Amino acid sequence: QVRLVESGGGLVQAGGSLRLSCAASGSILAINAMRWYRQVPGKERELVASLDSGGNTGYADSVKGRFTISRDNAKNTVSLQMNSLKPEDTAGYYCNADIVVVAGLYHNTYWGQGTQVTVSS
Fold this sequence. Notes:
A hairpin with a 7-residue loop joins strand 9 (91-100) and strand 10. It is built from no helices and eleven strands. The protein is mainly β. It is elongated and about 50 Å long. The mean pLDDT is 96. The N and C termini lie far apart (41 Å).
């Protein structure tokens, strides 16, 4: 059974930095893409950053230039380096991945449990 587990969230002052990590474990044949989302209670979940198997990245305009997504293929992990944090970055952050677990089948999408990031002014 595939699991995604996030870590690295916490409380930080505006202008500070945090690094989030997400580790995928289980029977994994391939990871096609990994992503980070964030969500504030009562609002839609927002795509923050994405990284596909070819190394292509994408970022929400609100975080471009401040956040960097990276991946360690050997360890099946994805990280989100967050610099110059702002109070509006406060949210629950969720890891997401498209993972092939059985040969010949289309990938499934998995979610982590989330980790809270709070940025104080």
